[in-house]
Amino acid sequence: MYLPAVPLRGTSILPGMIVHFDVSRDRSRASLERAMREDQRVFLVTQHDPNTEDPDINDVWDVGVIAFVKQVNRLPRNMVRVLVEGMERAVVGSFEKTEDYILAGVTPTGNESMDIFPASMKEAMLRSIKDLFTSYFTQDHNISRDVAVQIMESDDLEYVLSQIAINMPLPYERRQIILEAISVEEQYEALGILLTNETEVMAIRKELQEKIRERVDQNQKEYLLREQLKVIREELGEDTTLSDIDNFREATKKLKAPKEVKDKLYEEIKRFQNLPGQSPESAVLRGYIETLLALPWDKASRDRHDLIRAKQILDRDHYGLTKVKDRVLEFLAVRQLTGNGAGPILCLVGPPGTGKTSIGHSIAEALNKKYIRLSLGGVRDEAEIRGHRRTYVGAMPGRIVNGLKKAGVRNPLMMLDEIDKVSSDYKGDTASALLEVLDSEQNSHFEDHYIEIPVDLSDVLFIATANDLQTIPKPLLDRMEVIEITSYTENEKLHIAKDHLIPKQVEKNGLKKRQLVITDEAIADIIAKYTREAGVRSLEREIAEICRKSARKILEEGQKKITVTSENLEDFLGYERYSINPVNDEDEVGIVRGLAWTSVGGVTLQVEVNIMPGKGEFKLTGQIGDVMKESAQAGISYIRSVADAYGIQEDFFRNNDIHIHIPEGAVPKDGPSAGVTMATAILSAITGRKVRADVAMTGEITLRGRVLPIGGLKEKLLAAKKAGIKTVLVPEKNRNDMKEVETEITDGLEIVYASTMEDVLGTALVS
Ligand code: ADP
């Protein structure tokens, strides 16, 4: 059949639907007029693309609906509003555009008879579509109850299908799908899919909405509760806590820190808020929050990379130390080239007062880094490094984290002072905690027990100092690049005093440069008679003392200028404290001068041996370590093996006791380097041959009398020179080390190299 057609844009009409729509296109209006003139029937078919202005058959869907036009209303601007009722589906066959309207050739598809289906099949379809509809309807409340009831009460499958399709609010494309389903079976299927789909979508949507609502509710609830709490607290006079909480929140918001840290902070602030203000837990938690807020998580200072400036600063602050400075500069250069971190840790090793800390300070200044000093001396408890868990009363973060907090930036220079003095006890392993701090592989997430969140130490520049290499735990030593600083000579001390210590102390004590003069002789006397040290710490103290006394004199006695000389030194510092331990006046039997190296520098030590009738026993007294005892025994064995050559009786060692004593000094001495000294003293005591009083010696001894090299040569020679020794016996194998010793020290000393005990005895014994 042929019917005037109206193409629809963005809508699709099903049989049974009664709808309004507006018509504006001329052709469509003409089609309508034509229909009204005939039997009021039009063919309505939906365009694929609503924007097509003048559609052809290809621009519309295959199936449309034959509709009855119930009403036509003219609107302004040539628009027409129509009310139509869909009658039946029809497939479009042709689409002919006449002069003014469209004539479509259509074939109505009126539903085929349902009788071909078995009743049970129909029943099954009916029930299942009703089931689907029920679950859909319980979620979507756009369908009126009455309609729903009508649908549910009907037994007519076709009616049910069409009513559901008509009443479901669907986008027109979906409705078109139903329209295109021509047979009942197809309609059933299409609608089934649609219902299932829609139900699912709605369920998901509902779930999402639920979640959002919950969240909003929760926030609202919290807000209300918080407001109430505020009022309660204010009533109780605890309003301060509240502003603290606000401050904490504010500070957290502003904090430059990883998300992890902020989350933790918010969590803890929330807990804090709910604790009563006066409770101990609240105080603990407050401390914790404040600590987290004070740590420099992502805050860093800008480093300066200027080696020339670094050299200038090192030179400005330190006299001498050329080698040390060179190595520091090399270290800095490598660090700059390789980028931060990763490299080894610098460790400055040397006696106290030799400028280790002070060099660290200069490095910090050169790199423009914050400087933090941690003294590790006497740290025995792992918790001092790693902190206590918060459950402890009075828990605190460890020293490292505390240092970081003090620095206020994540990349300070941290001086680990006296790393050789850490020890481990039952409270855990301090060294391994330190290892974690220093190891670049591990320290990017250092775990402090108190902080709980890993702290990144990888940008911290660690510099360690130590007095003695021997006592640094081995695994720590492996991670460090050691730079040794040796004792200063008297001349060096003199320069340091003149160029650095005196100006520093003069200024510190509020004096003017011209108000105080200390003559070179006076300085030399201070060094020699008032201090005994490898470094310059006591020297600085004595100078400070002079400055204080001078300040008083200037104020009290009105003196304009004070000059300190050797003569009036006593007025400032009192009687001289040390007299140099001079060489013995006479050559003696059984007494030999040895040289030892201790953590405070070189010392001379006197070895005394007495022989007395007895049962062949051997006794060692004085401040002596185990290694020293063993080398004494090696000495004795050696002497027994050469007894013949020195005319010692066979049974001598059976009938006599040997007593070795090392007097002088509370300084504990250990190490093998007194071997030759002890052997010489014993042999002298046994044979009764005298030992030269102006000879000192150092060297390790083997059972066969070979002399092995020793360490700390410079310090030992310095001590020998101070003691007025003329000849020093040094192991042959140390000959190369002598090149490193300044001539200032060796001048006036006769150095004799010994490779065997015979060489030693040849020089030391008075012939
Ligand atoms: P350490 O850390 O080795 O025990 P310090 O760095 O504390 O020694 O040094 C003690 C004092 O001596 C400091 O005031 C330091 O500036 C000064 N000092 C040490 N060596 C030198 C030097 N070579 N030149 C100038 N001053 C020095």
State the helix count: 26
At CATH level 2, the architecture of the largest domain is 3-Layer(aba) Sandwich
Number of strands: 24
- For the report, how would you describe the main beta sheet? 7 strands, mixed
Q: What value does the average pLDDT take?
A: 86
Short description:
By secondary structure, the chain is an alpha/beta fold.
SSE diagram, text form:
Blueprint: E1 2-8, E2 18-23, H1 26-37, E3 41-46, E4 63-75, E5 79-97, E6 102-108, H2 119-139, H3 145-153, H4 157-167, H5 172-180, H6 184-235, H7 239-254, H8 259-273, H9 280-294, H10 307-317, H11 322-338, E7 345-349, H12 356-367, E8 371-375, H13 382-386, H14 399-407, E9 413-417, H15 430-438, E10 461-466, H16 474-478, E11 480-484, H17 490-508, E12 516-518, H18 520-530, H19 537-557, E13 562-564, H20 569-573, E14 588-589, E15 591-598, E16 601-613, E17 618-622, H21 626-641, H22 652-655, E18 656-662, H23 675-687, E19 690-691, E20 695-697, E21 700-701, E22 707-708, H24 713-722, E23 727-731, H25 743-746, E24 750-754, H26 757-764
Parallel strand pairs: 1-3, 7-10, 7-11, 8-9, 9-10, 12-13, 15-20, 17-18, 20-23, 23-24
Antiparallel strand pairs: 1-6, 2-5, 3-4, 4-5, 5-6, 14-19, 15-16, 16-18, 21-22
Helix pairs in contact: 2-4, 2-6, 3-4, 4-6, 5-6, 7-8, 8-9, 10-11, 10-12, 17-18, 17-19, 21-23
Bound molecules: adenosine-5'-diphosphate.
The site of adenosine-5'-diphosphate has 18 residues, from α12, α17 and α19.
